[in-house]
Structure formats: structure tokens, C-alpha cells
Amino acid sequence: MANKLIVAPAPHVQTAQSTTRIMRDVVIALMPALVVSTVVFGLDVLRVTALSVVSCVVIEYLIQKFMVRGATTVGNWSAVVTGVLLAFNLPASIPWWIVVMGAFVAIAVAKMTFGGLGKNPFNPALVGRVFLLIAYPVQMTTWPLPVNGSFDVLSGATPLAAVKQGLAGPGAIGVQEMLLGNIPGSLGEVAAAALLCGFVYLLWRRVITWHIPVTVLATMAVFAGVVAMCSVSFDALPQAADGTCSAGYKLGYLFGTAWRAGIFHVLAGGAMLGAIFMATDYSTSPMTVRGGVIFAVGIGLITMCIRLWGAYPEGMSFAILIMNACVPLINKYVKPKRFGVK
């Protein structure tokens, strides 16, 4: 009874979760994708990932030790997570010095400039990735081919780039290839099934909730499907087997087109990686479920606008960073009512 009468400041609900445990769980969730990527592209994947992680950890340690002159926090695994996510946004053939430069921008500019973990308004790994994409577009878009497989349709381009360049349609790249990772691309966009395994693990560990990832992917799928349906010309519809083109046949063809476009854009590129591991970052996402849904819808819409009508074949990184900037506004206008307020 005596313990119940103790008055103490918030928070009153305690949990076994800690920053170190959360970050370690994120690293574990990324391991299936790392394994698949290593099988697809070879040992260069481990080289890039190890270099990125070591660079992020060392840079953060040096800044805290000699510039901030405070307690070092590299033991909380946040720098490791940034390093792995940055590596997952890079091609396996990228030169080592570009990896180090990306790690410097991610940690020194995007994270430590704002005060470190929990104070950064933008996802550090994405800031590093976008900087490298703008500064070194050739190296960042030179994709190595998988060790095994034939890619006459893609001609060395990623599925998104192939569709963007008119080399193939969304239905030309098989769902199996995008799920299992037998396609060109960056380290983290070649195996959607492995990323989904990581998603299930994070849900099981209660590190994240399903609202942001599912809303991002659903928005992308619906948007892609509607655009694909609107682009279909009824005059050019193929005839049915009996030589007719009934209303039911037209409707089935339209929905088939929408389905292929939607599933393609969900599985291709960095959609899975961004929606599951980057849009859910605690520091850069809204605090409420309703705010998270608004945040996720914005990411999905911006991503699809860039993919379909922008200069880049992929827009996930830009979309997340743009919506990161909107998080303070979302938090201000979308928040729960105080207890007792009508």
C-alpha cells in the first residue's frame, strides 16, 4: 500500500524497451535482406555495409569525443542502424570513398548538427543517400547485375528505371523476381520478401506499428492503379476469346491493369525499405497514429508523383524527407485531446 502512495513525475508507465534494444532489433530485422543481397551481388555487399557502419560509428564517436565533448552514445546502436540503412541505399559496386562521404553527411550533417539521436528532423541515412545521388549521379545509378540470372528485359537497369525509360512495362518484370531479389538495384531494394520478414519481426517485437508502412504502400498501390486505369484506351483493348469486347471483359482488363501496376510499384525500388525502416523512424515521424497516417499518405502520393512524372525513377527518399519537414506541423494540428477537455 505504501508504494501506491508515492508521488513521482511522469512517465509513470515503464517498459523494458530501450534505445539500444530498439536499434538492435532494427539491425536484426535488416539481416534477412542483407543475406539475400549478399547472395545476389556477392561479397561486395558485405564490403559496402561494413565500411558504411564503421564510418558512421567512427565519425559519431569522433564528433562526440572532440567537438561535443560529452558522453559518447555509439553504444546505443543508432549509428550502426544509420550505417546499414545508408548501405542499403547504395549499389554494391560503389567506390569506398563515396561510402565514407555519405556516412559523413548522414552523421555529421544530418544527425549531430541538430544535437544527436532524437533531435534530428530528417532521416540521416536518407540525407546521405540524397546527397550522394545529387553529387555522384553516375556512381549512384550504376547497378551491378546479380551473380545469377538473365536480364535481357532490364538491360542492367532497375525495374523502375526500365519502366521509366520505356524498356519494359510493369507486367514484364515478374513478381517472383522482385520478391526474391533476382534483379539489379541497390542493396536494400532487391528482395521484398526479406524486407517483409523484417517487418513481421519488428511488429512482433513491438518496435513499430503497422499504420505507417501499410498506409504508404496502400497509397502507392491505389495511386498507381488509378493512373494505370485512366491511361487505358478502350479502343485499344484486346478482344476476348470469342471476338467480342463486353463490358465485363473491359472491367476485368482494367482491374488487371490496375493490379499489375499497383503490385509492381509496391515491390519495386525502395518502397518496402522506405516504408518499413525509414518512414517509421521515431525521431522523424509523427507522434500519433492519426498523424502517422497523414504522414504516410503524403509519402505515398509524393513518391508516385516523382516515379510517374518526375525526372528520377525513384522518389521514396525525396518523399520521406519532404514529409519529415512536415512532421512538426502535423504534430501541432493532429494531437490527442488533454484529459478532461471536451
Would you give an account of this structure?
The chain crosses the membrane at residues 26-46, 94-114, 126-145, 186-204, 216-237, 257-279, 291-310, 316-334. Its main location: membrane. It is found in: Cell membrane. The modification FMN phosphoryl threonine is found at residue 158. The protein has two domains: 21-144 and 185-207, no CATH class; 210-334, no CATH class. By secondary structure, the chain is mainly α. It contains 14 helices and no strands. It is globular and about 75 Å long.
Number of structural units classed as domains? 2
- As a percent range, the share of helical residues equals 55-70%
Number of helices: 14
Q: How many angstroms separate the termini? A: 34 Å
Order of helices and strands: HHHHHHHHHHHHHH
Residue runs with pLDDT of under 50 for 5 or more positions: none
What Rg do the Cα atoms give? 22 Å
Percent of residues in β-strands? under 5%
Whole-number average pLDDT? Answer: 85
Explain briefly what this protein structure is.
This protein is mainly α and 342 residues long. Helix content is 59%, strand content 0%. It contains 14 helices and no strands.
Furnish the topology, listing elements before pairings:
Layout: H1 19-41, H2 44-68, H3 78-88, H4 96-109, H5 124-135, H6 137-140, H7 159-164, H8 175-180, H9 192-204, H10 211-230, H11 247-267, H12 271-278, H13 289-309, H14 316-333
Helix pairs in contact: 1-3, 1-9, 2-3, 2-4, 3-4, 3-5, 4-5, 5-14, 9-12, 10-11, 10-12, 10-13, 13-14
Protein name: Ion-translocating oxidoreductase complex subunit D
Pfam family, one: NQR2_RnfD_RnfE
Keywords: Cell membrane, Electron transport, Flavoprotein, FMN, Membrane, Phosphoprotein, Translocase, Transmembrane, Transmembrane helix, Transport
